[in-house]
Amino acid sequence: MDLIVLRRFLHRARPVLPLLAACAICAPGRVGASSAHRVSQVQQVDPARAPAIPLKNLHTGERLELRLFDARGELRTHALTQLREFLRCVRTGEDHPIHWRLTTLLVALAAHFPGKTFTVVSGYRDPSVNRSGHRSNHTRGRAIDLRIDGVPNRVLRDTIQLSFDGVGVGYYPNSSFVHIDIRPRAAEWIDFSGPGQRACYSTTVTDDLASGEAERLSYEQARARGCK
């Protein structure tokens, strides 16, 4: 592991961490009740009371109870190392620092869906094996594909979209995960492809979500209709 890169990552994150410790991990706007089967806004989380994140890697079978903050609300720097290693590229074994915003977003989701295991489908991807090379947020430690046990992917997608700014949310109704990434401006998309299939992006995301077409269309129907 590159300790110099890790120190630089911590140096960039440190100015924000006291703010998180003082005023909690915050989502903008209203606060709503939590439910695994109902969309509601993620509540503020006091770092001193932040839960561990139960993680499972789909490909390696590894499990990790990740606790980002200690009982005083202080950052556990070792937890960042644990997460970095856990989300390593499954094809090359290489790892990469994980962006602090993505990490705290996972903590907030763990508090919103208490006791639910986060199954990671994809974390960091080495550019040498990533289909889009360096262009993906997966190659920069800023993206994760996951599902939360007992939580429908549509509920997870809508919860993230409702609760966080500056996040990219990819919905894959014919697959098994939701894509989450950190970016300057919010973005959303629907990809109707399943495992091993060529991407088929909706050209009418808002309409497809509102009408339920996102869940009704098969991959073949979406391709016949027309994809990006």
Account of the protein in words:
The protein has 228 residues and is an alpha/beta fold. Helix content is 31%, strand content 15%. It folds into two domains: 1-13 and 51-144, no CATH class; 152-228, no CATH class. A seven-stranded mixed sheet has the order 2-1-3-4-6-5-7.
Which terms summarize this structure?
alpha/beta; seven-stranded mixed beta sheet; 2 domains; 8 helices; 228 residues; single chain
Short overview:
The protein is an alpha/beta fold. It is built from eight helices and seven strands; from the N terminus they run ααββααββαβββααα. It has a seven-stranded mixed beta sheet with strand order 2-1-3-4-6-5-7.
Q: Strands of the biggest beta sheet: in what spatial order? A: 2-1-3-4-6-5-7
Percent of residues in helical segments? 25-40%
Gross geometry: globular
What summary fits the major beta sheet? 7 strands, mixed
How far the N terminus sits from the C terminus, by CA atoms, comes to 38 Å
Described by its quaternary structure, the protein is: single chain
Total of helices: 8
Radius of gyration: 17 Å
Q: What average pLDDT do the residues reach?
A: 86
**Helix-strand string:** HHEEHHEEHEEEHHH
Number of strands: 7
Strand content: 5-15%
Whole-number tally of structural domains: 2
Low-confidence stretches: 1-34
Structural class: alpha/beta
